[in-house]
Write a structure and sequence with these properties.
about 500 residues, alpha/beta, Aspartate Aminotransferase, domain 1, Protein-Tyrosine Phosphatase, Chain A, 5-stranded mixed beta sheet, 16 helices, globular
Length: about 500
């Protein structure tokens, strides 16, 4: 799949709506569509909408082996996760211990952190050497105080597949319930909540070629009375989630799940072949390592580390829509918590990218991606040791920072793809610094933009960060900002980006 010249490899972040999903949704919009409020039982418009909602509920249930009455509509997996965890502990007076892992999505980790402030104790499991959460780790963490275990079925960054069926047996033996974040699993791997012993399961439509803004929480009928509503105002969804139901989005999710149920096997077979083709191509460069390659994992998601100190993920950004997981905690300047947990150091994490394939990925897309990696690696090798002296640190796809630059460094930066240079230190600040005029002269000769925006050391203000953010927004990207040590430039960007967020 391509958008103009950009090839899309970020299906783990979101998927395009399938045209058949869009067609079903359009039928619920406009005066000629089924636009009524599903809660309006007094007229045909409302009853027609209700029928479509219930049909979609059955379609979602069928995909995961549930009963339709066990599906609760939400705005997405993040809300579903919050409802499951907060809803459980709101009603649990004694077993106030949560077991989860350090590999979880922030929707779980941040919710767990919130629950800790409400006197819920939390155990955070670490992965085993292969990058998986082991059954032994879960069993060791559970006690007679454990009320809930929450684990993702498929990891969003590295694609590892957790053995939920075996873990559920251990969880239930300890007297606890099992919640599963299946946002990355639905439509990619077979799910049967009854056979697997799952009590609560979170889903999101936009990960399975449905619309954004709609999801669901599977709540087993045996545990529904133990979950407290978190959204009040009308008692919808069996009292678990109030709010007017968005018929068009719900129909979109139902259609997407029906398509996944009937096409998942063929989709997965094709995607597995494309994934292997991509892996073979990048491995042939001799400079790329696949992370967690020995783990049980889905073929859709690949975590790749480029083993060259010269590499920056932004070198691929013009041609490939990929995720640079090192930016997960960019405001704090930290690498992805998932990559850190599987043993990657900061430098390796900053040279790691996630490629995720999907329904509309083609063989031509894969071959194009392999060529892009080859090109980036060739540029890294051309720059050679000079780049290592620059100590470039990527903060986002748009901005990287470095200590003091020379004219040769500017040429090296241009060779690896930078289009703009910003100087954040005053000329003459330290002996031996190249004057900005010389930097600008070299940059101009290479067709790069160069701007002088000096800031006093130790005096980065909100106003200076705002000015820096505005400048970056206007410049050709990626941008390399520098000062004497790189710290000022990093602080400016982190402050600017946090204010934008």
């Amino acid at each position: 799949m391509s958008t103009d010249t950009l090839r899309y490899f970020d299906y783990a972040a979101t998927t395009p709506a399938d045209p058949r999903v869009m067609e079903a949704m359009f039928g619920c919009l406009g005066a000629a569509g089924v636009f009524g409020n599903p809660a309006s039982n007094s007229h045909a418009a409302g009853l027609k909408a209700k029928d479509l909602v219930e049909q979609a509920r059955a379609q979602v249930a069928a995909l995961i082996g549930a009963e339709p009455s066990e599906i609760v509509w939400t705005s997405g997996a993040t809300e579903s996760n919050n409802l499951a965890l907060k809803g459980f502990f709101d009603r649990e007076p004694t077993r106030r211990h949560l077991v989860t892992s350090k590999l979880e999505h922030k929707a779980i980790l941040d919710t767990a952190s919130y629950l800790e402030r409400l006197d819920v104790s939390v155990s955070y499991l670490l992965p085993d050497p292969s990058g998986e959460i082991s059954q032994a780790a879960v069993e060791a963490a559970c006690s007679h105080h454990t009320g809930l275990v929450s684990l993702m079925m498929v990891n969003n960054e590295i694609g590892t597949l957790t053995n939920i069926a075996e873990i559920s047996r251990l969880v239930h033996a300890a007297g606890a319930l099992l919640h599963v974040d299946a946002a990355q699993a639905v439509g990619k791997t077979a799910i049967d909540v009854k056979a697997m012993g799952v009590d609560l399961l979170s889903m999101s439509a936009h990960k399975v070629y449905g619309p954004k803004g709609i999801g669901a929480l599977y709540v087993s009928r045996e545990v529904a009375s133990r979950i407290a509503c978190q959204m009040h105002g009308g008692g919808h969804e069996q009292g678990l989630r109030s709010g007017t139901l968005a018929t068009h989005q719900i129909v979109g999710m139902g259609t997407a799940c029906e398509l996944a149920r009937t096409e998942m096997a063929s989709d997965n077979e094709r995607i597995a072949q494309l994934s292997e083709r991509l892996l073979s191509g990048v491995r042939a460069t001799g400079a790329i390592t696949q992370n967690v390659s020995s783990a049980v994992r889905i073929p859709h998601t690949l975590s790749l580390t480029v083993e060259l100190p010269n590499f920056l993920p932004s070198m691929l950004a013009d041609n490939l829509a990929i995720s640079s997981t090192s930016a997960c905690n960019s405001a704090a300047g930290k690498p992805s918590h998932v990559l850190t947990c599987i043993g990657l150091g900061k430098d390796s994490a900053e040279r790691t990218v996630r490629l995720s394939l999907g329904r509309f990925t083609t063989e031509a897309d894969v071959d194009f991606a392999v060529d892009c990696f080859r090109g980036a690696i060739e540029r890294c090798l051309e720059v050679g040791a000079g780049r290592q002296d620059m100590q470039i640190r990527q903060l986002s796809n748009d901005v990287s920072v470095a200590p003091q630059l020379s004219g040769a460094d500017v040429r090296a930066a241009h060779a690896i793809g930078f289009r703009s240079i910003v100087c954040n230190r005053h000329d003459g600040e330290a002996a031996g610094q190249t004057q900005f005029a010389k930097i600008a002269e070299v940059a101009s000769s290479l067709g790069m933009a160069a701007h002088y925006l000096p800031v006093e050391s130790g005096d980065v203000t909100v106003e200076a960060a705002a000015a820096f953010g505005l400048l970056v927004a206007e410049l050709p990207k990626p941008v390399l900002a520098y000062c004497r040590t790189g710290t000022r430039s990093a602080t400016l960007w982190n402050l600017a980006s946090s204010r934008q967020g």
